[in-house]
Specification:
The protein is mainly α. Helices cover 82% and strands 0% of the residues.
């Protein structure tokens, strides 16, 4: 806030167009960091009118694109991020070009095109590797691996995570290393290699603790809870998932809270307690009302079907499972 105040006062007294444009770029980035995306967008657009410098114009197009993407205007974001990449490439600025491609990829992900996102991250990684930008390689490998993981391309995801991990560790990028370890743990859990999952989760927890990444520590709790459930260690699963839920609730992370409630319903059902499973499922709230969380809605309906079947309510089970199938189709189309 103090920095923004200084920049605002400087903008009020500055008359040189180039200097005003630079101040506008700094203000736009600061506003984006504060989450004031509308103000950041307006600031960057105004500053674009004050400069003809290609490098500053590229940075401002990037600022416009990032702010627009956060505001959900993925078309405007795509246009400006592509222009930023063109200018960064022409100016021979590989680090800035990596950032442009990474934000382009993130925007495509927000637009619902995970494959385009993966291609964007792959291009960013190739540029970073080609120019020896080790810190950017680690981050780009993390991003590419995450995109491939979400697409179900587990082999490519594993290769990307393992590509970034040594660099992150060597460069002291503790937060990137912690996230890479967590993602590896999740990937191994997804393919049923539970020992490897637990090994990477332990390291992820330690690194996240070093970096004071409380949200990631909670995510590790959640993952280890899922692994405990897979091992049928229901008491440990309930403890870990409950601890993760408490953190997410304090952080007002509503989606994560709902995910934990669904996991706790799974634990209760596995323990032969459909009443407790129903309580956890009902507590999930928005998770089974469709809308922006259709994947959770499909999961919730599947659980309702299983609970109904456990109680011998065949028609209710079929109805819930049919609803789950329809919601799953909607998720697949997205």
């Amino acid at each position: 806030a103090a920095a923004l105040g200084h920049l605002e006062r400087a903008a009020e007294t500055e008359r040189d167009p180039a200097a005003r444009a630079k101040i506008g770029e700094l203000r736009s980035r600061a506003l984006t960091k504060q989450g004031a995306y509308g103000a950041a967008l307006a600031e960057a657009r105004e500053a674009l009118e004050w400069t003809g410098d290609p490098e500053l114009s590229a940075d401002l197009h990037l600022d416009v694109g990032v702010a627009a993407s956060y505001l959900g205007d993925t078309t405007t974001a795509r246009d400006h991020l592509r222009r930023a990449a063109e200018l960064h490439r022409a100016a021979g600025r590989p680090r800035a070009l990596v950032r442009s491609h990474s934000y382009e990829a993130l925007n495509e992900y927000r637009a619902g095109d995970a494959r385009a996102a993966a291609e964007g991250y792959r291009e960013a990684l190739e540029i970073a590797e080609g120019h020896g930008l080790g810190d950017e390689v680690a981050a780009a490998a993390l991003n590419l691996g995450t995109a491939c993981h979400q697409l179900g391309d587990w082999g490519s995801a594993l290769a990307s995570y393992e590509r970034g991990l040594p660099l992150a560790a060597a460069l002291g990028k503790v937060s990137v290393e912690a996230t890479l370890r967590f993602n590896l743990a999740k990937l191994y859990a997804d393919v049923g290699l539970l020992d490897r999952s637990e090994e990477n989760a332990r390291i992820a927890r330690a690194r996240a603790g070093e970096a004071r990444l409380d949200h990631l520590v909670a995510a590790v709790d959640a993952l280890e809870g899922e692994v405990a459930l897979a091992r049928r260690d229901l008491d440990r699963a309930e403890e870990l998932l409950g601890r993760a839920r408490d953190h997410f609730e304090r952080a007002s992370a509503s989606r994560e809270v709902a995910e934990m409630d669904l996991d706790l319903a799974e634990v209760a059902l596995a323990g032969g307690d459909p009443a407790r499973a129903t309580t956890a499922l009902d507590r999930a709230g928005f998770a089974d009302d469709g809308g922006s969380a259709e994947d959770l809605a499909a999961r919730a309906q599947t659980l309702r079907g299983r609970i109904a079947a456990t109680g011998g309510h065949g028609s209710a089970a079929i109805e819930a499972l049919e609803a789950a199938v329809e919601q799953a189709r909607g998720v697949a189309q997205q």
